[in-house]
Amino acid sequence: MSTPRSDAFVFFGATGDLAYKKIFPALQAMLRQGELDMPIIGIARADWNLDKLRERARDSLQKNGGVDEEAFAKLSAQLQYVNGDYADAATYQKLKQALGTSKRPLHYLAIPPSMFGTVVRQLAEADCAKDARVIVEKPFGTSLATARALNATLHEVFPEEAIFRIDHYLGKEAVQNLMYFRFANTFLEPIWNRNYVQSVQITMAEDFGVQGRGAFYEEAGAIRDVVQNHLLQVTAMLAMDAPVGHDAESIRAEKLRLFHGMRPLDPSDVVRGQFRGYRDEDGVAADSQVETFAALRLHIDTWRWAGVPFYIRTGKCLPITATEILVDLKLPPLAIFDQTEALQSNYFRFRLSPEVVIATSARVKRPGEGMQGESVELVARHHPQREKMPYERLLGDALRGDSALFTNDASVEAAWAVVDPVLGEAEPVQFYERGSWGPAAAGALIGDGESWHDPVAEEAAS
After folding, report:
1. What is the rounded CA–CA span in Å between residue 341 and residue 27?
2. How, if at all, do strands 105-109 and 8-12 pair?
3. Backbone angles phi, psi at 271, to 5 degrees
4. From the candidates 107, 155, 168, 230, which is the catalytic residue?
5. Half-sphere exposure of 36 (CA within 13 A, CB side)
6. Beta strands 197-205 and 322-329: pairing type?
7. DSSP string covering 206-249
């Protein structure tokens, strides 16, 4: 069933870093495509005016993709600014006046989660929440208990169908392609299960550190920052059963079932690391136990995946910036050929960033008289002419009321339930050198006869 399109876009935190890096470029792209013919209202408590916000928008675009003068002229004309404190009722009266005849605004809370409750209650008091939608940014809570409390706060004002919990990772073309590739190709389904899959590895590596965000990282750490959201969502796309349709509720239902099948992590399944020098960053405690690296072994107790380990690894100051998945298949039952060599298994490899690559390995016979073989990789590279930015795609979906790429309350809480037992400092972090693949102990998580698959620069891959 179609839902009415929102008729105004309101973003709290208009002077902040997220608006500067992501929201303004997305708005310009949407205006360029004719997708944003409505009031655009920025709200902040910075004692700015509209001219200064326009200057900020232009500077943002110059540093993040460039200024399209025609689209920027539209943005400048539609842009409004409301200056005020988020706890002050007068701010919301000014917002109501700025909305004019708009009846179905989309409110984007690009602000710290601690302010969500204040803002949504004030929106309700000012009659700006009726028939409205709200987007909230991650991190959605810092634990299972805080996520539940945050959901309860939002539900005081907005029904669940009007709440859009944004995870920009789900807006990436390569991430969506995972689900499409799985369910649009017949050849995968017969082997995509415990009978043929040996293990699954997901690596999200970054070759840089915390980039001046030490104080933020002290509140988060790798597990809260990317495992609970980005990487468990990717796992769900890899492992979920086929939805009964392509509507949001069908997709969410299968993801939720998969999340419920994930066994809560045990400390013995997790290695936490910290790169040397992290404690020297501004805002970081001298004795910090926050992890900048996490490796974990995840078990999914479903009929399809029982007994198949999912290995997830992420970290900063690693050798490369890349996100890659390796689905390793079991060996053939007998080595008919190559009996003198160690047989290599087949695999599927998905490179999600910075390139988009899907590859599979196969054994082929070497030229010559003997029946000896070698492994080759069959590679498909995707070179789109124009790919939507994640925020452009997700903001457009939220305006239309399409929640397929957003997480609902039950899935958020189920994902927190998986990582909740290993949050905090139960086990001390292990140090690793910058440019390495993390603590040596991470290798012990992998089963006998296996090892971590280390992504390499794609141009150097065979």
Report:
1. 57
2. parallel
3. -120, 125
4. 230
5. 32
6. antiparallel
7. -SS--TT-HHHHHHSHHIIIIIIIIIHHHHHHHHPPPPSSSSHH
Distances (CA, A) of 232 to 26, 235, 294, 311, 415: 26, 5, 13, 11, 7
Peptide bond into 113 cis (omega under 30): no
Place of tokens 């993390």: 438
CA–CA separation, 188 vs 325, rounded Å?
16
CA distance 350 to 348: 7
Amino acid at 109: L
Is 107 considered catalytic here? no
Q: Give residue 87's Cα distance to chain centre.
A: 30
Residues 6+ apart with CB under 8 A from 77: none
* Secondary structure of residue 199 in the 3-state scheme: strand
Tokens (6 digits) for 100:
């004019």
- Helices assigned H by DSSP within 240-344: 248-261
Secondary structure string (H, E, C) spanning 139-198: CCCCCHHHHHHHHHHHHCCCCHHHEEEECHHHHCHHHHHHHHHHHHCCCCHHHCCCCCEE
| Long-range CB contacts (within 8 A, 24+) of 143-150 | 143/416, 143/420, 143/423, 144/413, 144/416, 144/417, 144/420, 147/412, 147/413, 147/416, 148/413, 150/113, 150/116
User: Are the C-beta atoms of 283 and 208 separated by less than 8 Å?
Assistant: no
| C-beta separation of 35 from 396 below 8 A | yes
pLDDT tens, N- to C-terminus, the chain (462 residues)? 568 999 999 999 999 888 999 999 999 999 999 889 999 999 998 889 999 999 999 999 999 989 999 999 999 999 999 999 999 999 999 999 999 999 999 999 998 888 888 999 999 999 999 999 999 987 788 899 999 999 999 999 999 999 999 888 888 888 888 888 999 999 999 999 999 999 999 999 999 998 877 888 888 899 998 999 999 999 999 999 999 988 888 999 999 999 999 999 999 999 999 999 999 999 999 999 999 999 999 999 999 999 999 999 999 999 999 999 999 999 887 777 665 566 778 999 999 988 888 999 988 877 877 777 778 888 887 666 667 788 999 999 999 999 888 889 999 999 999 999 999 766 789 999 999 999 999 999 997 778 999 999 876 444
Q: Which residues pair with 133 in a beta bridge?
A: 106
pTM of the model: 0.89
Could you tell me which residues come within 8 angstroms of residue 169 by beta carbon, excluding any fewer than 6 positions away?
Answer: 175, 229, 230, 233, 234, 390
The DSSP secondary-structure symbol of 200 reads E
